[in-house]
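Figure S7 source data.
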Amino acid sequence: MKLDVVNLTKELVSYKSESLLTNVPVTRHVMGILKGLGFQVEQLRYVDKNGVNKLSIVARLGCGRGGLTLMSHDDVVPAKQEEGWKQDPYQVRQAGGRLYGRGVCDMKGPLAATLCAAARFKAADLKQPVFIVVTSDEEIQARGAWEIVNRSKLFRDASSGYGLICEPTKLGVVYAHKGSMSIRATASGRAAHTSTLKGKNANLDMIPFLVEMKKINDLVLTSKRYRNDEFTPPHSEWSIGINDHNMATNIYPVTSTCTINYRPMPGTSIEGLIERTKKAAKKHNIKVEVTRPGEPVYTDPTSAFVATSLKVSGTRKARTVPYGTDGLAYRVKMDNLVVLGPGDIAQAHIVDEWVEVDQLRKGVKLYERFIDHVCVLGKD
Ligand SMILES: [Zn+2]
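Tokens for the predicted zinc ion complex:
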């Protein structure tokens, strides 16, 4: 099958697979292509917490274990033309060597590049298998990747091999990224007209808790313990959000919410910070929920896999990125992971999201060379 990366990107973008909506139709489209290329496809379905059907897939060309896995997600962050897009964000516009549309960069363009690369190979050519993974819900806590890690039979076969997370890195090799942790703290009050003094203002419990959260933020931004110089920036923020949902100044706020987001780095433990948060919450009658989508990804930059990635991509030095990927789930089963893909993350999640056609075409070539190196030639 001959696939063109530009046409395929346009097709994939035309499905509005925002994370809150279903990704089943676009994933079925990808499945159809993979089956046409001779891949065996495993489907992992689930219903998300809003009752929406989701589908992630793991596909294999060739047989056996190990080999090379190319990983993408097919959900996108929301987009509306009213936000200032020059066109319907789900109809790709091509101009000046670029594609514009939601997901062209993050990451339906890179996904299309992996499919185009895989299309050049036949199972009979392969000494080792090629796997393609496509997930749902990457943009919201990587649920699809966790379903794969916990349930997929094919991923178990893939996990002893090399994994490329094909998110945009301008085709540079990324050996580590930060993890993800979030906290939701809720204080409750009692409703009444403020003139009666009979209600309870939820903010009064929240205020001392917030003071403590600010102290933690000061700590993580200055202390050596929470610093890792392999990253830019070398610290993560204890990012505090506050909301008391109050509609009028003469009503007692009855629910006061604080949200915390933190990106843990390899080699820094945050257990103590979580304990400190729970203790402060208890002291001030606040309910806390801690969500930990995953730990940081770290593949030794001196490992054989990173060396291979540098050689195949023609890059001199591997680097780190501050954002997260599905890798925070994959790392539980897969030791050799790097992030390597066309496009620039700075062009993602924005109005008029774009990617250079040249980057996508180079991405296809790079993934072809990688498949050839690992799966056809059977090299490390
Ligand atoms: Zn992404």
